[in-house]
Automatic annotation (TrEMBL):
One of its GO terms (biological process) is siderophore-iron import into cell. It comes from Microbacterium oryzae. The keyword Transmembrane applies. The keyword Cytoplasm does not apply. InterPro entries: ABC_BtuC-like, ABC_transptr_permease_BtuC. GO terms for molecular function: transmembrane transporter activity. It is found in: Cell membrane. It comes from the Bacteria. This is Iron ABC transporter permease. Keywords: Cell membrane, Membrane, Transmembrane, Transmembrane helix, Transport. SUPFAM superfamilies: ABC transporter involved in vitamin B12 uptake, BtuC. The lineage of its organism: Bacteria, Bacillati, Actinomycetota, Actinomycetes, Micrococcales. It is a multi-pass membrane protein.
Length: 327
């Protein structure tokens, strides 16, 4: 935990220091001091730091939320490849946001958030129902297949809605990639209570999730209310994912990769896995956003692209060294 907190602090410092313009530690201190006092910095480097503060905060919060959401979904479904992208939650939120842009002309953070929550919830429920049909109930393989099929279908619907509507496509295409470049305090203020509440619920569910890993029958014998624990944990995971998707777009791979890496370091105990996954996700997305700004100078490469590019080979290495079995 101490190393994780230190890594988050270092990632935040790196995010503030590097970009199209590299700044010095003194300029970082000047920029932070001016921001804390509600003033506008006088030096160019300090001004750059002030402009990077919102996106750094959003990158840390979004990365933590996505990794925590992925860890929850893997624990609830006992599926090692479960994450918001594979289970269709991201695309469910994206479809509702697209429909809101195309047909309702939405523009406020509250509207984005409401539609993203509705879409993510309905997509998660649909995947669970479809994955539960047939003998054996909701097995990990059936849930993964149902999620992949649902995600592909929803992606096709998103394209069908956007293609005839140029204005909606121009507004959506940058959001679809996933990134934190559009961070602003008013939008983050809208989603912050949801993220904090869902994270608290997730941490409170950790002991029950440990019991669920032993099987439903054993969990019931240990006094755990299986249905309630699974419902609360799944709801927290969906809310975390939907809130981030509403403000930063559907960023992939964070929720899938980070819990696997953390599990190799800390073991399967959810009381450690959940907070450490949150710290790891914050580090990953903040660093990915910084890399995108550095290699894309004078523009930027969106963080969602960088996480996929970095995460794919890491997950391949993990898969080669670890038996990918049901949790």
């Amino acid at each position: 935990m101490a190393a994780g907190v230190a890594a988050v602090a270092l990632a935040a410092a790196v995010s503030l220091a590097f970009g199209s313009r590299t700044v010095t530690p003194a300029e970082i201190a000047d920029g932070l001091s001016a921001w804390l006092h509600g003033e506008v910095a006088s030096q160019i480097g300090a001004i750059a730091v002030q402009q990077r503060i919102p996106r750094t905060v959003l990158a840390l919060a979004a990365g933590a939320a996505l990794a925590l959401s992925g860890a929850l979904m893997q624990a609830v479904t006992r599926n090692p490849i479960a994450d918001p992208g594979i289970l269709g939650v991201n695309m469910g939120a994206a479809l509702f946001v697209v429909c809101g842009i195309a047909f309702l002309g939405i523009s406020s953070p509250f509207q984005y958030l409401g539609l993203a929550l509705a879409g993510a919830t309905l997509a998660a429920l649909f995947v669970y129902v479809v994955g539960s049909i047939g003998a054996g109930g909701s097995t990990p393989i059936k849930l993964a297949l149902a999620g992949a099929a649902t995600s592909a279908a929803l992606s096709s619907l998103v394209s069908a809605v956007l293609l005839p509507r140029v204005a909606a496509m121009n507004e959506f295409r940058f959001w679809q990639v996933g990134g934190v470049g559009g961070a602003d305090w008013s939008t983050m203020a809208v989603v912050a209570p949801l993220l904090a509440g869902a994270a608290l619920v997730a941490f409170l569910c950790a002991p029950g999730l440990n019991a669920l890993a032993l099987g439903d029958d054993v969990a019931v014998g240990l006094g755990v209310r299986v249905g309630r624990t699974r419902a609360f944990a799944a709801t927290a995971g969906v809310v975390l994912c939907a809130a981030v998707t509403a403000v930063a777009g559907p960023i992939a791979f964070v929720g899938l990769m980070v819990p696997h890496v953390v599990r190799l370091l800390s073991g399967p105990d959810q009381r450690w896995l959940l907070p450490l996954s949150a710290l790891g996700g914050a580090v990953l997305l903040a660093v990915a956003d910084t890399i995108g700004r550095v290699i894309g100078t004078p523009g930027e490469v969106e963080a969602g692209i960088v996480t996929a590019f970095v995460g794919a080979p890491v997950l391949v290495v993990i898969a080669r060294r670890t038996r990918m079995r049901a949790l």
